[in-house]
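Researcher: Predict the fold of Tubulin delta chain.
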Amino acid sequence: MSIVTVQLGQCGNQIGHEVFNAICSDVHGTHGLCSKKENESYHDACKERFFSEEESEVPVARAVLVDMEPKVISQTLSIAARSGYWKYNDRSHFCQKQGSGNNWANGYSVHGPRHKEVIMNLVQKEAEKCDRLGGFFTIMSMAGGTGSGLGAFVTKCLRDAFPTSFILNHVIWPYGTGEVIVQNYNSVLTLSHLYQSSDALLVHENDVIHKICAQLMKIKQISFRDVNQVIAHQLGSVFQPTYTAEGGLHYSRNPLGDLMETLVPHPEFKMLGLRNIPQMPENSLPYSTFSWPGLIKHLRQMLIANAKMEEGIDWQVRPPQLGSSIPSSHSTNKPLHFNTSIANLVILRGKDMHNVDLGSFRDPSLYTSWLNPQDAFNAWKTPRAFNKYEKSASLVSNSQFLLKPLDNVVGKAWNMFASKAYIHQYTKFGIEEEDFLDSFTALEQVISSYTIL
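Model: Structure tokens for Tubulin delta chain follow.
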């Protein structure tokens, strides 16, 4: 099944480009450990998901690019075309001459309705090119104007137009420092609206990725492109083909459906986080060796201690003894907070992955009591290495990982709202105070649901 990617705003278009680059680079890489047949079936499964072929025989990304300013889209189209490995469809993009000025309401209430027909026609054409449509993957920022406001509007339109298709929103969580004054408003409005339209939200936090660039990738002057490449590598590690059944002989044909079935057992819980190990500079890879037991041990501790990267993990955090109760105050404040999970997916790529012991992820004490641990944990595998890493493991988790940042954003936005700060900038575009209150209520319910896991 094919995935149509919808790239929204500057952030969404730049990350989307890096995602297709990472996927292409992986497919064209050398993987001597795999048989020719294995490589061919991997290549075919990847192409079906992400690319169509036109007369030129250069793979064309199944993507629609949307921005209210033309600069980023024209750069993205030309850089992709110059690569020679893949390109975008020249007619699958939409831009205007004026952005949304960091105003969510402008993107959602003005640009969205005004350009709905053109944008949805582009999406419809891309969907019709798929032999079998598996769903939509949208990429957007949470805090700006076009990406977040127009992105939330387009997601709602996708849900109305394709009610049975899966929608996964990839959302970039803004930096906590140096913030735009209204970013917390934009974030609250974005998340609450996506929660209604989307099947799941896969979140990357800018601060975390910045740390990975500095501490793991050893980058001195970190650019947006560096950050986007780390995000793209992590996304590729999840979306490239795998066997979803133990001892499977065929690559999964329904990546979004499999992801939802595995990780979203209840519509109240849609927040997904992603961790990927190892991550290091490319020039260090030839001198590094990794063992599966070591990678799995680190990944599990990253999960339970809510560590976002493998450096600086708190090894003191332990799962609670089954039968004991954790006081509710423990949920958000204490340093040894245990990160309770609803569902986890581990993806293993590389040699000898069939013999890896994943029993530690099946421990019932890791999970909420209302799900059978057998249903709460899944593993996908492939012997094919990913982007020059001989062995790599990814964890997609539906857990309490985002509780603190979410509570923080909602609290800051509420404090501004209580003093009526900047509200007029939204009301002039048709977003009323009741809309803010509805958004606060929706997200406070999400916080409450995750807190009591």
